[in-house]
Amino acid sequence: MTARAASWLPLSPGERAVAIEVLTHGPLSRSDIARRLDLSAGSLTRLTKPLIESGLLIEVPEGAALPEVRQGRPSQPLDIVAESRTFAGFKITQDMVYGVVTTLKSDIVARRDLPITSHDPAHVVDVLGELTGAFGRDFPGLAGIGIGLGGRASDRSVVDESAFLGWRDVPLARLVEERTGLPVVVDNDVAALVEAERWFGAGRGLERFAVLTIGAGIGYGLVSGGKRVGTPEDGLGVGRFWIVNSSGPLTPDGERGSAISLLSIPSIRYQIRAATGRDIAYDEILALAAEGEPMAARVVGEAARALGTLVAQIANFAIPQKIVLAGEGVGLVDVAGPVVEEAILANRHPHAEPVNLETKVSDFHDWARGGAVLAIQVLVLGAGAA
After folding, report:
1. Residue 209 in contact with residue 223, Cβ under 8 Å?
2. Where do the coiled-coil regions begin and end (predicted)?
3. What is the DSSP string of 193-252?
4. How large is the angle between the packed helices 364-375 and 189-200, nearest 10 degrees?
């Protein structure tokens, strides 16, 4: 069954607003929902009745905890039935496709990965189809697919450009829909991760927060007024030109002293290889730095100072309530956290509020979960980037 065939679709605008409010902030009492959406009690009853009857919403048993303390007689809260629908989310890297299945609340209930041996779109679509088929055997009610990848996407369907894959103008959503028979959403992987944090993660309920990712590249996303700030530059790779130390190293990627030349995993490995002639894995470099090995300690220390400077710049100009640091490179903070903190303080006003920096240990399945959240937003609730 696809999302188009789901018994509770299509939702009216009012029903959709109620569903999104409960999904992103629930469980909520009826009085809270009415207050948040400026609805009368009668209107709310009219809107929630079909959502309950269809199995999308459920009345939480009496005595269940609510997110806020209230006085007076409590009303029976409403919550989303998380298991009512499942979604496949994928993250495409240079050599792998990472996949997950999530519930309507984005909880991961299955993981499955496959290598890609070619960047030919037909091959990647075959791998995505194989993974979706395997997921579908265990979860026959998959409602749709969300895909995140490094690069630019338009209309949440066409990959305009992906340097990692060497793609231009690839209609990925249409190709995967033809292969799987399911509706598909495609977007930049950082945008997908930001949406996951906004609806279900560290940014839930915040009006203004930023996400910074370090790993194969450098990613940045901003939420302001409770909505992700989308720009034509999404997916262009701002880290190549975000200068944090003009005297920093020159690497094959990015300008001298840019965030990507100092912080990305390939650049850190390149610096070690250029200095020692040894090709060392990122985790091993961090371990050597922790042990005090001079070259690894120097490279990791420079990266940590760059990270602190970058975090301070974001805090200075975006003024977020929180900065979420994610990606496969966040182990840097475990090894050189004090250096990061020193650099943040050195680049902030001495009387500025402390930066609320939350480091999120993550892997590629978290990125794939972001793809599933796109599917939840767009395919099911028709929310777009609302």
Report:
1. yes
2. none
3. HHHHHHHHSTTTT-SEEEEEEESSSEEEEEEETTEE---TTTTS-GGGT-BS-TTS---S
4. 80
